[in-house]
Amino acid sequence: MLAKLTAFNNRLMPGRSLDEQMDNTFILAQQLGFDALVYDYTPVPIDQDGSLITPSVLELRNTPPDWHALWCSEGFYQIDPVQHLALSTVSPFVWSYEAKADTALQKIIDPCHAPVSSYLHERQLTCGVSVPIHLPRGGFASLTGLRTGKANTVVQDAQQTLADFSLITHALQEAAYPLFSKELRTYPHIHLTKRERECLKWAADGLTAAQIATQLSRSLAVVTLHLASAMHKLGAKNRVQAVVRATHYRLLED
């Protein structure tokens, strides 16, 4: 096992970009019998309402040409049961959309997943392996390999590759994560100014607006304005909720 991991790392580490890392990963995945590859990363996987957040990084290899648009712009990512399953577990798993297949997916499939299920059935990509990676501070990534072919045979073959595919996934994540910019590691849909973040950080420490004004050598009116602006951007009803939401979205990290 250690020898395999070393071989995977040696294959992936020389890549100079995420594209090169993905190309090398796809070569390894093809050797295991996979026909397509999907890698996603998000610094915050769910919003305050519990809905999946569209990933900051979505890298695809040999998927249908409309995949990226559907998953990132048309809401398929939010109703993809494989993504929901990946987020709820720490273990690699084999999945299949075939009704007779005995995989974890059959336990959670319901009508709301029909657009994704129909899409994959039409393209004969109904089976795969997914490896979730829960990162420090709440980040999340996963790698999914997809297969074509007859359901029973494909599921059995996929089961045989679970360990090796998991090793490839972790090798890819180790090689790819250092390439991500600070912006990619931060929730991209809410942008707080430097002053707004400073004020919220002090508020998180329990300081009042007047005390924050003293700390920052600013007027009470200016600090109140920064806090109100941050609350508005976060959709918060008060400062406590603003701090909770900013923390959830990792907006107060240096």
UniProtKB/TrEMBL annotation:
CDD domains, alphabetized: LuxR_C_like
GO terms (BP aspect): regulation of DNA-templated transcription
Span of domain HTH luxR-type: 185-250
Keywords assigned: DNA-binding, Transcription, Transcription regulation
Pfam families to which the protein is assigned, alphabetical: Autoind_bind (PF03472), GerE (PF00196)
PROSITE patterns linked to this entry: HTH_LUXR_2
GO-annotated molecular function: DNA binding
Protein's recorded name: LuxR family transcriptional regulator
